[in-house]
Input
Amino acid sequence: MPGTILVASLNNGKVQIKTETYWQLPETNLDLPFKEASNIVREALKESILIRWPTEVTAGYFFSGGLDSSALVALHQAQIKEPVRTYTVGFERPQTTRDFRYYSELAQAGAAARYLGTNHFERVIPLQEVKECLSLILSGMDEPIADPTAIPLYFLSQLALANGEKVVFSGEGADELFGGYTTYFEPANYRRINKLPEFVKRLMANMFPDEMKRFSRSLSERYLGVGGLLRADQKRQLYSLKMLHLSKKNQVYPAQSYLEDERYSEEDRMLRFDLCSWLPEDVLMKSDKMTMLHGLETRLPYLGSAISRACSCITL
Output
């Protein structure tokens, strides 16, 4: 499991195997003023970048122009004099789409790169090239996964490698640490609805029966993770008895217990669950495989040990 090591030993001719935990989420959050907490996080992130910056090989940044990658680049420039190289890809505009921004971050990334003064590289990927590379991308993942962001990661890695990079820095992990996904707004919406008069809630139940029924469930019943599509009982139906036997308590996600820990707010429980399930099992796995497919090493400053300690200062 993530955060553990496997220890194998030979005693009296018999192999003994056990696991030992070397990292786990902080048990408590520190209730600090926002300014003090933000200063602690900023210094921890600066330290995290410094200790990961290579001196023996070239390195660049995957860059979307969003808060996560822009913060890394800005902090880099504040303390490392080496010019920053940033990389962004976008996709050929489809013939029909409601919002082209879902297919290309080039405009946002370009504007942020100009503002920050980076040496910026970008490329538009034609649809035909995506089709030609899709089977290679899927085989490179080594397992069935339906996360489409593997596609831009593949082409980003290709672009960085073509420019001679050996190491790439990425903002992975920031959304799970700081609540960057819109799904984390749901508990606050639930609390607002719960304060409404009873006759208004009955009216809403008639108008939006599925949504209101969802709010009647516990967090562990209704929250499937950032990328979750199937409930726990639906997942179990997909597995044989032998497969279920491999998981303690027949849980498809051992991290499910984080959603049931009432010591924390619902927002914190969602974050803790995603940090121990979605992040290692999708985000980091996908990022590692797409970059290593091109012989690149990914370094993730947001996931340094100093940052995990600093984030215990923040309560959503």
Q: What stands out?
A: Residues 255 and 273 are 6 Å apart (CA to CA).
